[in-house]
Write a structure and sequence with these properties.
Elements: H1 11-22, E1 27-28, H2 30-39, H3 46-58, E2 63-65, E3 74-76, E4 91-94, E5 100-102, H4 106-119, E6 129-132, H5 135-143
Parallel strand pairs: 4-6
Antiparallel strand pairs: 1-3, 2-3, 4-5
Helix pairs in contact: 2-3
């Protein structure tokens, strides 16, 4: 007989679910989660936040991204977009303000397909980030 792991419905998990629903489709860090609860006047420990995030990643509820050595891990929850059923998860990161944009683009999907078919290389889109300036920072740079 194999044991199945039971998901306990704790207050912390319910609070995390609330946070995820309010931030669906957005990128966030563990710090963002802690800050959110602190601003609401709710007590949830940093260790608990990290533990909940790790659990949610293992369960496939959220996606974890590590972009570079100098940035914190970033997470994303999107109940309308199933990452497991859709491989492409490219991101754009602004080198000026740090903004992170989830890229959904058919042209990039065609590029990924071309790289595989013509060059025999499968790109890991969950680890692929294009660096540059976001629209706002590009406008500011143009004015200067």
């Amino acid at each position: 007989m194999t044991a199945t792991k039971v998901k306990y419905k704790t207050k912390q998990r319910e609070k995390m679910q609330e946070f995820l629903k309010k931030n669906t489709g957005k990128h966030f860090t563990a710090y963002d989660v802690c800050d959110y609860f602190k601003n609401k006047g709710e007590t949830i420990g940093t260790t608990t936040v990290y533990r909940q995030l790790d659990t949610l990643v293992k369960e496939g509820v959220i996606k974890k991204y590590l972009f570079d050595e100098s940035s914190s891990a970033c997470f994303e929850y999107d109940e309308a977009h199933d990452h497991a059923g859709h491989r492409m998860c490219y991101h754009l990161k602004c080198t000026e303000c740090g903004k992170l944009i989830h890229l959904k683009c058919e042209e990039i999907e065609m590029f990924e397909k071309h790289i595989f078919e013509e060059h025999g290389f499968a790109i890991d889109s969950t680890r692929t980030v294009f660096y540059g300036l976001c629209e706002d920072c590009a406008k500011k740079a143009k004015k200067e």
